[in-house]
Design brief:
The chain is mostly helical. The longest helix is centred in the middle third of the chain and has 46 residues. It starts with 6 loop residues before the first helix and ends in an 18-residue tail after the last helix.
Amino acid sequence: MVWRPPVRLIVAATAFVALTIVFVAAFWVLAILTALIALYLLLWGLVAKGFWCRNCKKFPLGNRSGPSGR
């Protein structure tokens, strides 16, 4: 007589594999979406806004009085 795993074990293993595939796929989608957004922002900052409007960017990093510039 050949040993056969119980049906409950087969169902549990199948559910585990299916959920793992969905979980990994969801994170791949989020990772790709995040990478595309990051690439867009980098290109926008380096090429578009950063190239055309260097005087428009005013970051108060060296200003000790705060962001208001007073």
